[in-house]
Specification:
mainly beta; ten-stranded mixed sheet; four-stranded antiparallel sheet
Length: 687
């Protein structure tokens, strides 16, 4: 097995390389080998550590490429790679993702409340803070620890009632064409309704909504995978797409934006069959050397007629006899111990011997003469010619006949072809009748025996043919099979015909395949639907598969809410029947109490007589109830100031009026009376 760690992300930060490390191990299993084509192999991979997904490549021939356990059906050797993808938490590109540095290094559309407290400054809708304990910040919130350590900071938010509000954003440099994981831990702090987290990268939503757990203070992780494509920066944001009240209040912590990484291991599956060949050098003659040859494997074992057995790819049998004729089989063993067989037919030819008798009138031409040839089978052919001296006077011939009337001694006088005198005395003897012995084989035991037929031979004499028929062997084959039907189990015999045309008995042993039972659990709100239910199906062996489903009763719940109103007609206790997240009855009881109306008395002053008086305004207070404001406006006084002055200039004497504004902003009249001082004459004397 070849293990490699493929780093899917490489980012330069501060001129140094950060290399991803996957905290997981992958084992694709041992290489496999089967002696059949095509072959089906069971792949069983294992992955340890936290994994996003695992999958096999290539997918060709796989029944379930995204499952650790799958089957591969192939006709050629194939290497499959098991890939396990995970988040590389050793490289977190988010700054202050655990909020331990406080309210810094991120942006948000929410409004920051630096010191929320109950009741005067509790965290309202669309507000957030960074802190450690939610309970003191809102009347409905429960106390939770952060996800990082249980005692550190987290971001606490009262869900906005306006759509498309980013709860948290940060811009991060990224490497193009790289896959990243965007992860966040989320917990509800109010039991009245969970948030629905949506990831957004570079202005586009990634993945679907992720609903937090309704139970407060239970942290749940959400993540999405994103490929950077051509982007070099990523503005990553978290939104709450639930804008409904009440509830929708939540905490986020331990935000991670990290490259993914893949660990791989490979396994090779090899289907293989042996395809041997077998050949020989026949036809050959008896006494020659038989050559057997084979190919297609590593080891070879021969068997054949006359109990022949020998190992070796090429085998020689010297000085063969007629017992060597027949079918030879070779069993070839190849790669992985796979075996195959092949056969070859050996035929043998006989040497021939011919005896020829001749006569001659020439004594020098008489004698026995031997000639050696090669017959049509390539074997030795010996011709022995015996030449005897013909007497000049008398030639005795013998002949044979099947006709008794033609038998006797007959004399004729000729000149032979050698020019010799030839008295031919022909003695014709009666030919005996001929008998021919034949052998044959049969599969029918009733046809075995010795059978005689009478014919006429080529001399016209009686010919008796005696045929001896022997019995050919029958064959038997043992097979095994499986069944789900216990009544179909047993040993069954079929009678067929083999290659000799004889009986071939096939004995099939049928064994029982296993049945299986699967136990499932389910939940329901309907008490009538609870119980244990049994289904009878068919498993992959075609046998009975029993599925037993235990359906348990899910709980119903009741929520008590309080509210306030300015309308006395709306005061009371109201009950709503809804459906909870289990699909069961959920009763919401809302107690509405009456808020107070208020009256405010104000005083004011004016210089304008038309603006003086008592004025009443009807408004709405912060509870949404009637608020009456009564303003009493009183008239400020005007004033007149009389001044006197004196002047020596007659043109400056007189009464002068000035209109000014006093300290109240009202009219102030200054009347200045300037009187003329008398002139006087003084007489002085001097001495």
């Amino acid at each position: 097995m070849n293990k490699t760690v493929t780093i899917l992300f490489l980012l330069a930060v501060l001129n140094s390389q950060l290399h991803a490390q996957c905290n997981q191990t992958v084992d694709a299993g041992p290489d496999q080998f089967k002696c059949t084509i095509p072959a089906t192999f069971q792949l069983s991979g294992t992955v340890t550590g936290t994994t996003i997904s695992s999958y096999w490549t290539p997918t060709t021939g796989l029944s379930a490429p995204n499952s650790l356990s799958t089957t591969a059906t192939v006709s050629v050797p194939t290497t499959y790679v098991l890939n396990a993808k995970s988040i590389n938490y050793n490289i977190n590109l988010v700054t202050n993702g655990n909020f331990e540095s406080g309210n810094t290094d991120f942006t948000t559309n929410y409004t920051y409340n630096g010191s929320p407290s109950i009741p005067a400054n509790q965290l309202n809708e669309g507000q957030y803070t960074v802190g450690a304990a939610p309970a003191p910040m809102h009347v409905n919130w429960q106390n939770c620890g952060d996800h990082t350590s249980g005692s550190g900071n987290m971001m606490l938010l009262n869900g906005a009632t306006t759509a498309n509000q980013n709860a948290w954003c940060q811009t991060i440099p990224v490497t193009p064409n790289t896959e990243y994981a965007f992860s966040v831990w989320v917990a509800s702090v109010d039991p009245n309704g969970p948030c629905n987290i949506q990831f957004n990268i570079n202005g586009s939503s990634v993945g679907s909504g992720n609903v937090a757990l309704n139970t407060p203070c239970v942290w749940k992780n959400f993540f999405v995978l994103w490929n950077s494509g051509a982007a070099t920066t990523a503005t990553i944001c978290i939104r709450d797409i639930n804008i409904q009240m009440p509830g929708n209040d939540f905490a986020i912590d331990d935000i991670v934006f990290s490259p993914t990484c893949v660990v791989t291991d490979s396994v090779t599956v090899t289907p293989y069959v042996v395809t041997p060949t077998a050949a020989n050098n026949s036809p050959i003659c008896i006494g020659q050397t038989l050559e057997l040859s084979s190919s297609g494997g590593n080891t070879y074992q021969w068997s054949g007629p006359n109990s022949f057995g020998q190992s070796g790819q090429n085998v020689s049998i010297p000085n063969v006899t007629n017992l060597a004729a027949g079918v030879y089989k070779v069993t070839v063993t190849g790669t992985g111990g796979c075996t195959g067989t092949a056969t070859t037919l050996v035929t043998l030819s006989q040497p021939s011997l011919s005896n020829i008798a001749k006569t001659s009138c020439d004594p020098a031409a008489t004698g026995v003469f031997t000639q050696h040839f090669t017959n049509h089978s390539g074997c030795d052919s010996t011709v022995i010619t015996t030449v005897t001296l013909l007497p000049k006077s008398t030639t005795n011939l013998t002949a044979q006949t099947c006709d008794p009337a033609a038998a006797g001694v007959f004399t004729q006088h000729f000149t032979n072809h050698f020019g010799c005198d030839s008295t031919v005395i022909t003695t014709i003897t009666l030919l005996p009748k001929s008998t021919t012995n034949l052998t044959a084989q049969t599969c029918d035991s009733t046809a075995v025996g010795v059978f005689t037929k009478h014919f006429t031979n080529h001399f016209g004499c009686d010919s008796t043919v005696i045929t001896t028929i022997t019995l050919l062997p029958k064959s038997a084959t043992n097979l095994t099979a499986q069944t789900c039907d216990s009544t179909a189990v047993g040993v069954f015999t079929q009678h067929l015909t083999n290659q000799f045309g004889c009986d071939s008995t096939v004995i099939t042993t049928v064994m029982l395949s296993p049945k299986n039972t699967v136990n499932l659990t389910a939940q329901t709100c309907d008490s009538a639907a609870a119980g244990v239910f049994t289904q009878h199906l068919t498993n992959h062996f075609g046998c009975d598969s029993t599925v037993i489903t235990t359906v348990m009763l899910s709980p119903k719940n009741t929520i008590n809410l309080t509210a306030q109103t300015c309308d006395s007609a709306a005061v009371g206790v109201f009950t709503q029947h809804l459906t909870n997240h289990f699909g069961c009855d959920s009763t919401v009881i809302t107690t509405v109490s009456l808020l107070l109306q208020n009256t405010t008395n104000l005083t004011a002053q004016t210089c304008d007589p038309t603006a003086a008086g008592v004025f009443t305004q009807h408004l709405t207070n912060h509870f949404g109830c009637d608020s009456t404001v009564i303003t009493t406006v009183t008239l400020l006084p005007k004033n007149t100031t009389n001044l006197t002055a004196q002047t020596c200039d007659p043109t400056s004497a007189g009464v002068f009026t000035q209109h000014l504004t006093n300290q109240f902003g009202c009219d102030s009249t200054v009347i200045t009376t300037v009187t003329l001082l008398p002139k006087n004459t003084t007489n002085l004397t001097a001495q």
